[in-house]
Design goal:
Layout (H helix, E strand, L loop, with lengths): L1 E3 L6 H15 L7 E4 L5 H8 L4 E5 L16 H6 L4 E4 L2 H6 L4 H13 L3 E6 L3 H5 L3 H12 L5 H4 L3 E4 L13 H19 L1 H6 L1 E5 L7 H5 L6 E4 L6 H10 L1
Helix pairs in contact: 1-2, 1-12, 5-7, 7-9
The structure holds 1,3-dihydroxyacetonephosphate.
Length: 245
């Protein structure tokens, strides 16, 4: 279960979140938990999560190790700050910061080289959904952003299916719609990397996941977890979502 905090929370709010979240979990983490705060809050999150099995991740990296790239940070820098995971290619980065499938591939490779576990995000926009192009979009994103990995690299990534029309809109994909997309992604994985690798692959669903809809989503065998935005900002609601995992 993963929490994408996007551009929310200060350092103090990060520490306060973990205090309450840890108390609600009460040491009974039922699944792997990753929290993705803003880069500036990573050290506070790492400190607050120490002694628990909660992982901390960044929301984005640049693919070079260092250099004259004003405003960017590398995978090594994230790792140095205590992060062990990173999001790659979130739809908001594709939409507002011009990320392409080619960039997603380079960033994923850089994350793996830095020892981070990348969560590579894919998903169709509303107009693509309405035009019945979901499979085309996912096949294109897989081919451009993921298929170029080696088998060893692929074994270390997690994929998140996030239909853009479901993000922050309160419109969750039905468990059936999400499972259908996950099956398509898994079949692309099987074609490129083989049946075993496809079976091992973890695919998270993201888009308006809340405590009251997580149960139906997790009941689908194809859905291995969730990438949660808005509902992960509140420790009580994220703890409830985690317990469904
Ligand atoms: P919401 O849960 O707020 O819809 O956001 C989903 C998301 O973008 C997670 O990465």
């Amino acid at each position: 279960m993963a929490a994408n905090w996007k551009m929310y929370k200060t350092t103090g709010q990060t520490t306060a979140f973990f205090q309450q979240f840890k108390a609600e979990l009460n040491g009974s983490e039922s699944c792997e938990i990753v929290v993705f705060p803003t880069t500036l809050c990573i050290p506070a999150a790492v400190e607050a999560a120490s002694g628990t099995s909660i992982y901390i991740g960044g929301q984005n990296i640049y693919w070079c190790r260092e250099g004259a790239y004003t405003g960017e940070i590398s995978g090594e820098m994230l790792h140095d700050a205590g992060a062990t995971w990173t999001l790659i290619g979130h739809s908001e980065r594709r939409q507002y910061f011009c990320e392409t499938d080619a960039n997603v591939l380079k960033k994923t490779q850089a994350a793996l080289e830095a020892g981070l576990t990348p969560v590579v995000c894919v998903g169709e926009r509303l107009e693509e959904h309405q035009a019945g192009k979901v499979h085309d979009v996912l096949i294109r994103q897989f081919a451009g952003g993921i298929a170029g990995l080696t088998e060893e690299q692929f074994a270390r990534i997690v994929i998140a299916y996030e239909p853009v029309w479901a993000i922050g809109t309160g419109k969750t994909a039905t468990p059936e719609i999400a499972a259908d997309a996950h099956r398509l992604i898994r079949s692309e994985a099987e074609k490129r990397f083989g049946a075993e690798a496809a079976q091992e692959l973890r695919i998270l669903y993201g888009g308006s996941v809340k405590p009251d809809n997580i149960g139906g989503l997790m009941a689908e065998a194809e859905i291995d977890g969730a990438l949660v935005g808005g509902a992960s900002l509140d420790p009580h609601s994220f703890a409830k979502i985690v317990s469904a995992g």
